Amino acid sequence: MPARVTKLKELAAQLDLSITTVSRALAGHQQIALKTRERVTEAARQAGYVPNTAARTLVSGRSGFVGMVLPIRGPNLVDSFLGEFVTGLGEGLVSHGTDLILAAAAQGQSELSVLRHVVESGRADGVVVTRIAEVDERSPICASAISHSSPMAGCSTPTSPTTG
Fold first, then answer.
1. Which of 12, 51, 122, 146 could form an S-S bond across to 19 if both were Cys, CB 3.0 to 4.6 Å?
2. 161: left (phi over 0), alpha (psi -120 to 50) or beta
3. How far apart, in whole angstroms, are the C-alpha atoms of residue 103 and residue 114?
4. Nearest CA among 123, 133, 127 for reference residue 145
5. Of 155, 5, 161, 4, which Cα lies nearest the Cα of 82?
6. How far is Cα 109 from Cα 118, in angstroms, rounded to an integer?
7. CB 104 within 8 A of CB 68
8. With contact defined as beta carbons under 8 Å apart, do 21 and 36 qualify?
9. Whole-angstrom Cα distance, residue 108 to residue 75?
């Protein structure tokens, strides 16, 4: 079994190809011959090569993550709806090559500030906002994210009307 390759440069040297060719082959670019793409992909698999996410993010401007803020409000962290929702969301995203990251908003920390940080830092290519209220303090951040081409998704459960 070949030694584990951790850098694109090492994989390129092993295959006697340029770094650009190997990078494009792994990305599936059509300008690289199918035979070369297959050879590079197989060599990468055998060598245990995993692309460096930080480098890929720098080049593409995409993180490969969708974020969701999870407010931590006591011992019952996840109710049945949220548990099923996060499981389904994670499975759906992974099937499309994207990962779900959860950003915790600890007790005493503003969910709004955590959401703002996720959006403004570019840690996620999009965010999912749950339990949306008719008047929601997160709306301006969501509008800002959308105006900067960050996908947004919302989800809410029906709430019962309050009395009084």
1. 12
2. beta
3. 7
4. 127
5. 155
6. 14
7. no
8. yes
9. 15
